[in-house]
Amino acid sequence: MLFNSFEFLAFLPLILVLYWGIAYKYIQLQNGVLLIASYIFYGWWDWRFLSLIGLSTLVDYCVGFGIYKSNTKTTKKRWLWGSIIFNLGLLGYFKYYNFFVDSWIQMLSNFGYQSENTWVLQVILPVGISFYTFQTMSYSIDIYREKLKPTKNFIAFAAFVSFFPQLVAGPIERATNLLPQFLNKREFTHKTFSYGIKLMIWGFFLKLVVADRAAIYVNAVYNNFESHEGLSYIVATVFFAFQIYGDFAGYSLIAIGTAKLFGFDLMTNFNRPYFSASVSEFWTRWHISLSTWFRDYVYIPLGGNRVVKPRWLFNLFITFLISGLWHGANWTFVIWGGLNGIYLIIEVLIGSKNRKGILNVLMTFMLINFAWIFFRANTIEQALSMIKTIVTSPGRLYIGSGDDIAASIYAAVAIAILVMVEIKKEYFNQLFSISNNRLEIIRLGGYAIVVFLILYLGVFGESQFIYFQF
Fold first, then answer.
1. In-domain check, residue 342
2. pLDDT (tens digit, 0 to 9) for every residue of the chain, 470 residues total?
3. The model's pTM
4. Is 196 within the bounds of a domain?
5. Residue 287 belongs to some domain of the structure
6. Does one domain contain both 210 and 102?
7. Which residues are catalytic?
8. Do residues 409 and 437 share a domain?
């Protein structure tokens, strides 16, 4: 089920009525409502994949107790490795099996050996598998690290794993933050509920107006790149930067806002990343739940920066290489991750981690956009061809034809609105505020304008969120 679907608009009020009305006095009943709602929400795509999330829940629930009750470090490690192997095996089979088989066949063909694709499987990628496997795996790891005790409440744990607002595209929550909220009574407050609605409204603006408007131009250029020239590639890539930001930050805000309607607090996932003055700062502001996950469960266990410099640089690079592969089974994502790793290595070597100033912000934005070319391109060859054309043949700017011209203008207007709002939040947050104004008429008027922009400029057609593919 998509947030931007009519089914969700009917689904959410119904679950809220059951949750705050019938089940209000009983935590276990509320958790049961959320568990059933989450399985309906997830099973809306394909009910067969419910078995996967159910199995992942059961495995890590049992592993948690296995680790906690073990008397020796060796036994604890065996339980932990059981969780890691199961979750990564699940992820590897559904997401990466065909990728590695195809890469192996291609490598053999480069050496003159021809092989049929007899090992390739017709496997459908389950929505959100990269997110919930990481979430359940971190539960077992945190118990092993003695940061958490396992819960005996299976319903609460299953609801934590499958919590529908953030199930399919995050934020990737830690059990130390989210699980206790399923074990404690939630109180309904108008302040929290209204704040959740506000977050959702802005999230829908980012998705339907910014992301989906920009996508029209981006798809026209990237999906027919042979017909365009360098200047169009540059504009399309900048549009894509705002498309993916609006799409994913929008999803995160809708998820966080929806969770607040039920009395839950999810972590912030984006913090105006395009105002970063360095790539290292960018990764403290972009997809924060994933960045901190890789920091805590990959980078630090490798040694982090507590090792000799060559090993430190290796740790940075390999962490981002893995992060790139996490995003998708395509070498374009691996190169994207590797580029970001190289950026960070250069920043370490030249000592530019704590840079400030508008020129550094623009430079960082350019570097991030260069990497986005590989992220968005369908193949490495396409990305390299586009980069070459940008350098050698800027050419003319494609603005579309017919309705596409209006779509491009609307996209530019939407991006301009977003940039102005974020400039105000980033640099002038203490000045006049609409969303937090003491006058209710100003607050309501501001959100009425946003709703109008959504209805007037939004693209309605239930387009999927970009990160669903990851």
1. no
2. 788 888 888 999 999 999 999 888 889 999 999 999 999 999 887 788 888 899 999 999 999 999 999 989 999 999 999 999 999 888 888 776 665 555 545 655 655 665 555 554 555 667 778 888 999 999 999 999 999 999 999 999 999 999 999 988 779 999 999 999 999 989 899 999 999 999 999 999 999 999 999 999 999 999 988 888 899 999 999 999 999 999 999 999 999 999 999 999 999 999 999 999 999 999 999 999 999 999 999 999 999 899 999 999 999 999 999 999 888 778 899 999 999 999 999 999 988 656 788 899 999 999 999 999 999 999 999 999 999 999 988 888 887 766 678 888 888 999 999 999 999 888 887 777 776 667 777 778 888 888 888 998 888 876 777 766 66
3. 0.90
4. yes
5. no
6. no
7. 327
8. yes
The answer to whether position 20 is within a domain reads yes
Same domain, 201 and 114: no
Chosen domain end from 164, 186, 208 = 186
Same domain, 396 and 450: yes
Rounded Cα gap, residues 263 and 193, in angstroms: 8
* Phi (first) and psi of residue 309, to 5 degrees: -55, -45
Give alpha helix (H) positions in 393-439: 403-427
- d(CA 22, CA 43) in angstroms, rounded, equals 24
Pair (195, 251) in one structural domain: yes
* Domain that residue 362 falls in: 191-277+356-457
Q: What tokens appear for 42 in the block?
A: 């997830």
Tokens of 413: 């207007």
Same domain, 121 and 59: yes
- For 162, the enclosing helix (H) or strand (E) is helix 154-162
Looking at the fold, whether 145 and 262 belong to one and the same domain comes out as no
Judge contact between 136 and 87, C-beta under 8 A. yes
Residues 267 and 135 in one domain: no
Region at 395 (left for phi over 0; alpha for psi -120 to 50; beta for the rest):
left
